[in-house]
Design a protein that fits this description.
mainly alpha, 2 domains, 3-stranded antiparallel sheet, 10 strands, 15 helices
Length: 404
């Protein structure tokens, strides 16, 4: 071989090696702790939210009072009060960012119920504040996650999507300052999918530090059903069938799991019913879920029990009542059960109480609308208020559907 050809071969080899090196540097391996991720869907086209009839009355007033408590105790930077003992004024706690994000979502629900933009403004202030905890690192993991308590929990991403969805329901847009919330929700959706285990459920958290590894020992009770709901909400907000396809796969897994008193699962069933995408297995599971909540009613309504969990039971039953109504199944049998749970919780919405306490005017003015846990535990916590606002609103929506 001539010297010129040899030099040409060497130059070509060096060029090829350089191309492969820089191409590898520009396209790093994307961390996939779970399923292989699908290709990016087409750019979504936002839609308008569905409208619900919210009847006036004491129940609606109670929802607004709970929202007023949240807004009244909000700091100027958007931070919500996580927990307060209304007797001694103590606020000693280890706050959960995931629960606080749910509190921001509850403010948007109150805005929608009351048609008062004051609560949407409070929600925007909280949401913008908590979105500072979003983490994106495309070299280590897909999408965006909510960094909370040292990890990126699956439930944190799902509840952030849910909060964006609730804002869309109340305001019908996706802009908060410079933030494009639908883009944020899509990134969170990809993070949720990145934690999917093929032919199984989810990893429930990712450690985003260094190698960005999934945490197989981390568990959150409702994370999988919250993720299913988030995927269905992404479909509703964007109109993109990609998210519905992903949700169907998750639902097929969840419908085979044991039944627990899971209000998020009930909310997801309503979304599936609205789409007309129900199987016989879905209907059977929803019925077992309702029966499970009702079967535990005597235990749940024991005066020693927390109002927070009873509010979550109302949320589950109210959404299941909507599900049964939409799927043309019997639903009236749940009304007395919902009334029982609602009465139990409202007896602990200050200034009312079932503990024979007499509250001063000052205490009532400061903590009125807040829902305390129990007579032995006079604390008001953000997730208890979220559960009540969600549950009572779902019951109001059901009453609006049925014309009650």
């Amino acid at each position: 071989m001539s010297r010129g050809k040899i030099l040409l071969a060497i130059v070509f080899s060096l060029a090829l090696a350089g191309f492969l090196f820089f191409n590898r540097k520009q396209n790093p391996l994307n961390a996939k702790p779970a399923a292989t991720l699908p290709a990016a869907p087409p750019q979504p086209t936002p839609r308008l939210p569905a409208a619900f009839v919210i009847p006036d009355g004491d129940l609606k007033d109670s929802v607004v009072a709970a929202g007023a408590y949240l807004a009244r105790h909000q700091l100027p930077n958007g931070e919500l009060s996580y927990q307060a003992d209304f007797i001694n004024g103590g606020r000693s706690y280890s706050p959960s960012l995931t629960r606080l994000m749910g509190g921001a979502g509850a403010l948007y629900t109150v805005c929608r119920v009351s048609n008062d933009l004051e609560y949407c403004d409070a929600g925007d202030l909280a949401l913008d504040h908590y979105l500072e905890a979003l983490v994106e690192d495309p070299q280590r993991f897909r999408g965006a996650c909510l960094y909370a308590e040292g990890v990126c929990p699956l439930s944190g991403a799902a509840l952030t999507v849910d909060t964006i969805y609730k804002r869309w329901q109340a305001r019908a847009d996706f802009l908060v300052g410079e933030r494009r919330l639908l883009d944020t929700a899509v990134k969170l959706g990809y993070f949720i999918l990145s934690l999917r285990i093929p032919e199984d459920g989810f990893y429930h958290a990712l450690d985003p530090h260094f190698r960005a590894s999934a945490q197989p020992d981390f568990y959150a009770a409702y994370a999988a059903s919250q993720s299913l709901l988030a995927l269905l909400e992404l479909h509703e907000m964007s109109g993109n069938p990609f998210w519905l396809e992903q949700a169907r796969g998750v639902n097929e897994f969840l419908v085979l799991q044991p039944v627990t008193e899971d209000p998020w699962r009930a909310r997801a069933f309503v979304k599936l019913a609205q789409l007309g995408a129900l199987s016989a297995e879905d209907k059977a599971y929803a019925l077992r879920l309702a029966e499970t909540i009702v079967a535990g009613e005597v235990r749940s309504l024991n005066p020693k029990n927390a109002s927070f969990s009873s509010a979550a039971k109302l949320e589950g039953l109210a959404n299941l009542a909507q599900f049964f109504f939409l799927s043309q199944a019997e639903h009236e049998w749940l009304v007395p059960e919902m009334n029982a749970f609602a009465t139990f919780v409202r007896a602990r919405q200050l200034p009312a109480n079932d503990c024979n306490w007499t509250l001063s005017e000052e205490t009532a003015a400061e903590f009125g609308g807040g829902i305390f846990s129990a007579c032995e535990d006079p604390t008001i916590r953000v997730d208890g208020l979220q559960n009540w606002i969600n549950g009572a609103t779902a019951y109001l929506e059901y009453l609006g559907m049925t014309g009650e």
